[in-house]
Write a structure and sequence with these properties.
By secondary structure, the protein is an alpha+beta fold. It is built from ten helices and nine strands. The chain has two domains: 109 residues, Phosphorylase Kinase, domain 1; 235 residues, Aminoglycoside 3'-phosphotransferase, Chain: A, domain 2, CATH 3.90.1200.10. 37% of the residues lie in helices and 12% in strands.
Length: 371
């Protein structure tokens, strides 16, 4: 059974000229995409799940398409690059069959007020905070779904960037250090008076940054609301969406970022308040079990996991704070963001707690991160 994600009316601040979009799309769609055969102008609705780039449903009588564009307001440096996101998915399509088929890229902001791209919609179910009961997933089926999800990440990390035509995205050695420095700069730029400065955490990460693992293709936002479950088998993942932050680098950084979102059943009340995916459902693996499964599937010896865990949580705090600052500066009126600063404060405490526990624990050979 497919549980169709509900798209709603477009928020007033996110509207655009639909007729202009339709006219442009018919002239510029990729050959063979079938856009020239569509009738009328599309009905446009907006998906509400994302908090960064905006995602719309374009419903023609014959088929449905997806449009992605940047949010209104100030953009974070290097974020919301539609051409980059379009190019990555186009390059991955021959070697990673879970990316949507690209239809058209527009870099002319005069069309709808920003650059954008259009892609085909992958049919299936996208999970949010809970598993819909209509899917009929018992504990064993949920475990198989969980393993299917992590296996899609493993498959991505096994792709050779050069084979995919993405080698030029690799900036060479020092990826981990660059990430620590870059996200630290982003956090400081997004800081507001009501959140901690994270300086202790940033200093600890800078001091403990390990040497890079072999560089692979990273998704960098891998979680259930970016995955599409098969229409005929909800235990199977058939689509991976939202490639905004994809890059080339250390795959353990990608795993750490994914598990920052992984709220499990025995987490404390405040961590559970951050949950946006059904990672605590009966049958789901714990974070430790996911790391073990990833290590077994990849053959990668995972050392110094605490660094990747703390970095993932700090990175998540920065993403949340960047979104909150847009609300703080009234660049968006989306009230869903008004309490995000509380999550940032909690993540600071959680990072510091993990660091303190790590400082008390005797270190052995598996804990050396190098650097």
């Amino acid at each position: 059974m497919v549980v169709v994600e509900e798209a709603r009316a477009v928020r007033a601040e996110d509207t655009f000229d639909v007729a202009a979009l339709d006219h442009w799309l018919r002239e510029h769609a990729a050959p063979g995409s079938g856009v020239e055969g569509l009738s009328g102008t599309p009905e446009v609705k907006q998906f509400r799940g994302g908090a960064s780039n905006l995602t719309y449903l374009l419903s023609y009588p014959e088929r449905e398409l997806i449009l992605r564009r940047p949010p209104t307001g100030t953009k974070a440096v290097s974020a919301h690059d539609m051409a980059r996101e379009y190019r990555i998915q186009s390059a991955l399509a021959p070697v990673y069959p879970y990316v949507p088929r690209m239809v058209a890229l527009c870099e002319d902001e005069d069309v709808i007020g920003s650059d954008f791209y259009v892609m085909e919609r992958i049919e299936g179910t996208i999970l949010r905070s809970r598993i819909p009961p209509q899917l009929g997933l018992d504990e064993e089926s949920t475990r198989r779904l969980c393993l299917s999800a992590i296996d899609r990440l493993v498959e991505l990390h096994q792709i050779d960037p050069e084979t995919a035509g993405l080698r030029d995205m690799d900036k060479g050695d020092g990826y981990v250090h660059r990430q620590v420095e870059g996200w630290s700069e982003r956090y400081r730029a997004a800081h507001t008076w009501n959140v901690p400065n994270f300086e202790r955490v940033m200093r600890w990460l800078s001091e403990r940054a390990p040497r890079d693992a072999p560089h692979k293709v990273l998704h960098n936002d891998f979680r259930f609301d970016n995955l599409v479950l098969a229409p005929d088998d909800s235990r199977r993942i058939v689509g991976v969406l939202d490639w905004e932050m994809a890059t080339i680098g250390d795959p353990l950084m990608d795993l750490g970022g994914a598990l920052a979102y992984w709220v499990q059943a025995d987490d404390d009340r405040l961590m559970r308040a951050l949950r946006r995916q059904p990672s605590d459902a009966p049958g789901m693996l714990t974070r430790d079990e996911l790391v073990e499964h990833y290590s077994a599937r990849t053959g990668l010896q995972i050392e110094g996991w605490t660094f990747y865990e703390v970095f993932g949580l700090f990175r998540l705090a920065t993403i949340i704070q960047q979104i909150y600052k847009r609300y703080h500066l009234r660049q968006t009126r989306n009230r869903a963001f008004r309490h995000y600063w509380l999550g940032v404060r909690y993540l600071d405490r959680r990072c510091l707690g993990i660091i303190r526990r790590e400082g008390r624990r005797p270190r052995g050979p598996r804990d050396r991160t190098g650097g």
